[in-house]
UniProtKB/TrEMBL annotation:
Segments traversing the membrane: none
Protein name per the record: Alpha-amylase
Reactions performed catalytically: Endohydrolysis of (1->4)-alpha-D-glucosidic linkages in polysaccharides containing three or more (1->4)-alpha-linked D-glucose units
Entry-linked Pfam families: Alpha-amylase
Key words of the record: Carbohydrate metabolism, Glycosidase, Hydrolase, Signal
Stretches assigned to the Glycosyl hydrolase family 13 catalytic domain: 24-382
Domain of life according to the entry: Bacteria
Family per record: Belongs to the glycosyl hydrolase 13 family.
UniProt-listed GO biological process terms: carbohydrate metabolic process
Enzyme Commission (EC) number: 3.2.1.1
Residues in the signal sequence: 1-23
InterPro entries: Alpha_amylase (IPR006046), GH (IPR017853), GH13_cat_dom (IPR006047)
Biological source species: Photobacterium sanguinicancri
Amino acid sequence: MPNKPLLLAMAVSASLFATSAQADVILHAFNWKYSDITANASAIAQAGYKKVLVAPAMKSSGKEWWARYQPQDLRLIDSELGNKEDLEALISALKAQGVEVYADVVLNHMANESWKRKDLNYPGKELLDAYSQNAAYYNRQTLFGDLSKGLFSENDFHPAGCISDWDSPGDVQYWRLCGADGDTGLPDLDPREWVVQQQKNYLLALKKMGIKGFRIDAVKHMSPYQIDQIFSPEITQGMHVFGEVITSGGKGNSSYDKFLAPYLNNTNHGAYDFPLFSSIRSAFSYGGGMNYLQDPQAYGQALPDNRAITFTITHDIPTNDGFRYQIMDAGDEKLAYSYILGKDGGTPLVYSDDLPDNEDKDNGRWADVWNRSDMVKMVGFHNAMQGKTMEVMFSDKCMLIFKREKAGIVGINKCGEARSYTVDTSRYELNWHQAYRDVLSGDSETITSRYHTFTIPARTAKMMKI
């Protein structure tokens, strides 16, 4: 098999995001089998998630997680994680629980099959023969089109060649994503009329199945023209579309200015909030301060509230060696979750993976995060605070305290000793004589005078609500 690709970008478009009044929490069920999501539908809803992002729904082969990002055919759903029938059952089960399904979609490229054939016909003869030999099964998994014929051929791709200048948008958007050791890379689709129409047919078929959002994989590698041609109003109407363009910061950072800013300016899509993630990592770093998180958006270090997918970890970070430096300390990651789930603005994403032992470099660290007791409590706080504005009451190197109108208070202390701050509750209009209960510890405190001192234990968050 070829070396796994670097898969640098993920993107999705949110055409009507502004019509969604609530920024519901998305569970990214990364590499989960569709049947496992279906089996957990009730638990997912009870944990407070309103959206689930599932693995790419298409034809792919191979047990490795990265094989899901190497499409062999867009016309049907059949992979190690499930088929069309499995996805239909998943959508139905989650819908019954009031949970919507988002699909990860791969449109930039097709699978690297140079290890077994020289042509660029997709699907290859091997698959076309399989379709013919087991027609009843494959017909049940078909989304659109005629499986007796091919989908793409050599004329549907950019010329072969690997990206050489990762700082050049033209280079990144035209040439192939390649691995090491002479890997010829992922054949890069040319947005000619035939290709675009098949991709639109694919997205419309998923939408017809009941998919409510798209995450566009590798959007950094797609030209603005290509994105605009595919994601027409017909596709985006009523959908939440967003994607990942990995940057090292916000405004002023080269990767932001050259890749993420143009994507946001040229579309109405949402995007993973890597500028905020950089601010979070800086805040929790040695020498950094929680005051970095007081209002990062004001300095271009966080995306606008209605465009942002907020997170503390994405699937690319632990699974690609080049990004593993961005993994946060486990304790800091929990505190960071209390920030993104406690604050106003953005759509929080909770990452939980199901990787085989030979691909899991972190001993199952994120496998059960979605249903962990503290996570469920934080998601519940987020849901209870929907639509309530946020105001920072105090921040310094160690501590950040903010309120959600009168209904909630969040305090985060990253330092190794307890910290206290006295708040003027008249100035900040907090409720007196009503207990604020910390959803994480169960402790409560009641304000009985104008000046109230909040104490946050070392390396702890409090998420208090009436």
